[in-house]
Amino acid sequence: MPEILQLTGAESVRAFYFTDLQHRAVRCDATLQPDATLRVVLPPFPAAVHVQVAVRPYGRVWATADQGGAGYEESATLPLIPELAISRIRRYERRAMSLNLEYPPDEDIEAAWDLYDLGRPMESLYHGLLAGEDLELAAAEVALETRDFQAQPPARISATLFGERLDPYAIGVGQDWPHESLMPNFLRPRDRWDLAAQLCDATTLPTFWRWVEFAQGRQRWSPIEEILAFCEERRISAKSFSLFWGGIGGMPPWFRSLPYPGKLKAIEKWTTDVVGRLRGRIEAWEIVNEMHDWGFANQIPQLTHEQSLEMTRLVSGLVGSLDPGVPRVVNHCCPWGDYIQKPGSSGPWIPLTYLEELCASGIEFEGIGVQMYNPGRDLMECVEHVDRFARFGKAIWITEMGTPSSAAPRGKVETSQIDLSIGWRGPWEQENQAEWVERWYTMALSRPYIRSLNYWDFDDERAFIEHAGLLDVAGRPKESYLRLIEWCERYHVGGRARTVAG
Fold first, then answer.
1. pLDDT band with cut points at 50, 70 and 90 for residue 496
2. Are residues 130 and 216 in the same domain?
3. Host domain of residue 95
């Protein structure tokens, strides 16, 4: 008989998924029953339960129940919210012991304990979330006080000089434009490039195959050359976007109907063309993107696992031979893999297990890319999850991110990834967007293995996530941009470091 876990009091739960204790997501037979009980058929190993729950006044957030770190293995009926609260308290305690901070921020964790003992678990969970974030921020600030940036160079601060959207089209996720002569110009206005250069010392190039070679054999490089000329003038480093991506923006219309052998030949030519043209000017090559069984990025090519590995090996080998010594980055969206629990989702790969497969297959790469769009999780969970990727012993690029400054409804929802109603320490607005960004950048900068922090949605006008820009629609700096400028000056990174260096 299978072991059944029943978590009662799940009235505010909107979504759920399950993992082992290393956060490898696994699909479980689970239902949210009419009496607000979450019934789970447990897997044959200690499991953690992750639920998206409303925690006032924090917001709607993913929280974890893992029996204080031990996981669930046996049948039981337990109240959900107390399980979430005590799991967060125990997680804080384990992390605090590992950090050995002289002055740990303990006010909120004391409140979490007191409220838990008083039988007020939701308030306890709220204070536990605050405590974890404050602990990670304190640890990051101490680490940065003692960090030698000469011996351990800091992450580059990056933003894109192109935008995702130009209605009704998008460079990555949107519909095809009708003809190559009507290709939209996704480059941002030049005054916004100047604002990006004040903040950043790096950027990502729009090497989207569809945009460069919409018609077979007719490649358009002038926008990319324009960006590279600006970067070389301002001493800004450049990383490519993925050489192969199964999303619509990564595949020209002519490519999609090719048989699989024809696809391999086309990818070989495209990779050779891009690297041959741009080598010597690129700091890192993003070789593949979102190959980890997320259905949206595999709707058209419909690759098997064996084909996905073969394509990754092909692109990796070509880049390694054509531009040896330059890091090859494998990029990932949906880094927690929670999509695996959704009906009709593909699987069983999630980013972590896909990376395990790459390593087991002997495919060579030097970096891991992680996207961090409005994650809907507290910052302790965000930074600890990036630490999980670092266990592969590779450098980490935060390749894409954007966090909103307004909770207004979205106009476009192509991927169903982003929910602006989630919020963070209250509904999204400029002030807490700025606070989130500054805290996240501080935590990330404290990790020597992180090589780049790339903000994808630099302005609201062409953002992937609505309202996520550091600039508004008119190109005016928001509070988040101004805070990041001050933050770069404090740590002498990004555009501030380049200015000081002359």
1. confident
2. no
3. 4-146
